[in-house]
């Protein structure tokens, strides 16, 4: 009834763009931070785009995203500069969060309720350091048994997505091998992490359109949907 293999007992959900609408807020915050940085440098390579977000930033830990995008433009920066850009992005994100709050996708809430009713255990694996706050604001914390977030990644020295470390840690905290866990992701980097970790099932959630579904399948998605309630 949940659209998953019978031996999957744990669901590992990414947060932004999978359960909540905050992926769009992250993208806008990144654009503000990167465009300001590029303008400051007098860089003529053009503004930060949605494709840049999807290819270099989406799903990755904050500093990894900074370095990945800037490297795509042939720019290398020191740690202080990378932290300054990342800090500007986070300030912009928190300002919108404070002003507008967070909305959970109705289809995702329906799926979480069905998963809980069916006995599927639930964890969240996100690169965001604001994971706890977003879950609380969206009213989703009650569904979640364990959380791996950006703070966990730093504190435990985990590699960020597309490496599988954070998802493997989520499965470990839930007490199951990867083969008994399903990964739910809206980012190509997260889909790739689920595939690299040899998880039992990798669900791609395409909220972008265009060729995103094809990219997700190429990265290792077992199935691609546009909303989680399609799996019910």
Automatic annotation (TrEMBL):
It catalyses: beta-D-glucose 1-phosphate = beta-D-glucose 6-phosphate. InterPro entries: B-phosphoglucomutase_hydrolase, Beta-PGM-like, HAD-like_sf, HAD-SF_hydro_IA, HAD_sf, PGP-like_dom2. Keywords: Carbohydrate metabolism, Hydrolase, Isomerase, Magnesium, Metal-binding, Phosphoprotein. Its cofactor is Mg(2+). Its EC number is 5.4.2.6. Pfam families: Hydrolase. The keyword Metal-binding applies. One of its GO terms (molecular function) is beta-phosphoglucomutase activity. The keyword Signal does not apply. It is an enzyme of class 5 (isomerase). Belongs to the HAD-like hydrolase superfamily. CbbY/CbbZ/Gph/YieH family. NCBIfam families: HAD-SF-IA-v3, PGMB-YQAB-SF. This is Beta-phosphoglucomutase. The lineage of its organism: Bacteria, Bacillati, Actinomycetota, Actinomycetes, Mycobacteriales.
